[in-house]
From TrEMBL:
Residues 7-229 form the Ketoreductase domain. It comes from the Bacteria. Belongs to the short-chain dehydrogenases/reductases (SDR) family. It comes from Streptomyces phaeoluteigriseus. Gene3D superfamilies: NAD(P)-binding Rossmann-like Domain (3.40.50.720). This is SDR family oxidoreductase. Keywords: Oxidoreductase. InterPro entries: KR_dom (IPR057326), NAD(P)-bd_dom_sf (IPR036291), SDR_fam (IPR002347). SMART domains: PKS_KR. Signal peptide: none annotated. CDD domains: SDR_c (cd05233). SUPFAM superfamilies: NAD(P)-binding Rossmann-fold domains.
Length: 244
């Protein structure tokens, strides 16, 4: 039997990249999947079709994590569409990297709204809809463990907040049999960080394996954590040895 048969998952930012790979991977393990997007309606619909091709139900929801009502509201919409919620994957995130002096107040507010506030609000709403066996899996970054050079202050700040979130959720929700975990991807080949981009070679060189990872390599860890029963409050690197 597949590990996630009969489960419902919500993946934020599931239209492209790591989120899209995760949505398909969870469906392969038996889950029905809701995913959110902001601009990528057609890409989201492609992911819905990929999930349906695996014999699972899927729904794409337009929900901007930067908007408080939409970040929380995606949970109810997903649960209503698919009949409950068992797994939340907080994947939606943005990277605004660059010289410290160039980061504007708007950059600070936007990054914190998507990467931190939205994650909190979606998790809080999900906790309200989950029963025992619920899973909250959040996508952090290898830059929580090591900021390898200049330009990452704001992004690393935002992703580091997810460590406290995950530990706190583990304690808040453990008594209800709900777990919380944090996955730290290294350089992963996506639109956000293409393996043929100007900074790619330097990033690959920082890993022990000397290469970028794929969305599916991150998704396999998310799928493991979605099925794991005695893992909570902890961080998992899927970073090719970036932190080694
Ligand atoms: P991409 O930029 O390739 O894809 C981002 C996805 O998130 C898209 O589906 C996008 O939707 C969605 N999204 C963006 N902003 C919002 C928002 N405000 N509300 C809801 N959805 C949103 O990113 P990756 O797949 O590379 O990254 C996924 C996660 O992994 C992020 O949290 C990122 O910080 C993290 N990460 C990535 C690494 C990498 O090297 N790629 C390394 C470490 C961490 P739409 O199509 O509508 O724009």
């Amino acid at each position: 039997d597949k590990t996630l048969n009969g489960k419902v998952a919500l993946v934020t930012g599931g239209s492209r990249g790591i989120g899209a790979a995760t949505a398909v991977r969870l469906a392969r393990e038996g889950a029905d999947v809701a995913l959110t997007y902001v601009n990528g309606k057609e890409a989201a619909e492609d992911v819905v079709r990929a999930v349906e091709a695996l014999g699972r139900r899927a729904v794409a929801l337009r929900a901007d994590s930067a908007d408080a009502a939409e970040a929380a509201g995606a949970v109810g919409a997903a649960a209503d569409a698919l009949g409950g919620l068992d797994v939340l994957v907080n994947n939606a995130g943005i990277g605004v990297l660059g010289p410290l002096e160039d980061l504007s107040l708007a950059d600070v507010d936007r990054v914190l709204a998507v990467n931190v506030r939205g994650v909190f609000l979606t998790s809080q709403a999900a906790a309200g809809r989950m029963g025992a066996g619920g899973r909250i899996i959040t996508v952090g970054s290898c830059m929580v463990q090591r900021v390898p050079g200049p330009g990452g202050t704001l992004y690393a700040l935002s992703k580091s907040a997810l460590v406290g979130l995950t530990k706190g959720l583990a304690r808040d929700l453990g008594p209800r049999g709900i777990t919380a975990s944090l996955v730290h991807p290294g350089p992963i080949d996506t639109d956000m960080n293409p393996a043929d981009g100007p900074y790619a070679a330097g990033q690959a060189a920082l890993t022990a394996l000397g290469r970028f990872g794929t969305g599916d390599e991150v998704a396999s860890m998310v799928a493991y954590l979605a099925g794991a029963t005695y893992v909570t409050g902890a961080e998992y690197a899927v970073d090719g040895g970036h932190a080694a």
